[in-house]
Amino acid sequence: MPADEPARCPVVEFPRRLAGAPFPPADYARFRELPGLVRTSLPTGQQVWLVTRHEEVRAILTDPRVSSDPTREGFPSFGRTGGVPRSDEVPGWFVGYDPPEHNRFRKALMPEFTVRRMREWRPAIQQIVDGRIDAMLARGDKADLVADFALPIPSLVISALLGVPYADHEFFESRTQVLVSLASTDQEREAAGTALLRYVSRLIKIKQKWPGDDLMSRLLAAGTLTPEELPGVGMLLLIAGHETTANNIALGVLTLLVNPEWIGDERVVDETLRLHSVADLVALRVAVADLEIGGQLIKAGEGIMPLVAAANHDESMFDCPSRFDPERGAKQHVAFGYGVHQCLGQNLVRVEMDIAYRTLFERIPGLKLAVPPAELPFKYDGVLFGVHSMPVTW
Asked: Which domains does the chain have, with CATH numbers?
């Protein structure tokens, strides 16, 4: 097939998550077996390329001919307010910027997320985790592992890091849930996004007058980012800092309950990240120049969706990828993305997951699910995969 005839490439149905079906969708493996790439139609009717092989996903995420900028023509969109905000809508939402502009934000933020900095945060995170377990134990012998443990931990941590009052957690958690749900309407997302941006903007104005020992105050003092950009930065970190980590903690606990022989093994963190790949759909891109991936020509202006979960379940990279096997050494996973846009907070996520797993099973060794795993309400309706609730007993 000539490489310049994308219309003749397979056009597949958008790989939706189906209740009761395994995640990632079985279609991902089928797509990897097809020659070249496949195309799909988004709910908006826009056609985009799907990239499902590990090597090709990493190639897309590092190619300078591929852009993360949603203002570029052809950038994938799930709806009027879905996906990556435009810079004119939310200044400072730097995951939607390309180098060199993107580099300016990473340079300003990197010192806050180094391995050394996260090591300094370990005692505070340990205290937060112990506090949540204390509260669970004080209420009896059952809990919702999501509401009582997996969600509060990263919410408390990111609130402390940014200088956000945790008393407001119900506000920002509820608005985030609207933003990451595929079932939300454009109007609901717009209202939730506007409310969050206004909240962070007010917080920054307060910190301009009364700075504290927190990331947002330090960014204000440094002056490397403008006051107009900081609300978008804060909103992005607030959303990413609690929602993705909460999903990873909950799914990791579930996985260890099903595979208890791995409890206490430090390698479970990266294998959990690889296995569940909660941020499967977030790495949206568009070609800004013609390029060839997997023998297929992608033309400038065509949208691209690198599927992270598909890459992390590529049999050519990970043997028996659906099996939970911490011994495999899954360091090459792309759960945090790859290249210049690789997740800035990955060191923080790993520390939170490690402390949460180790402490939970040390302090509640009799922890068990209160319902069969198949009956859990998984987030088939979310941009991020996870579980809505997880009843447990001990």
From this structure: 6-393 (1.10.630.10)
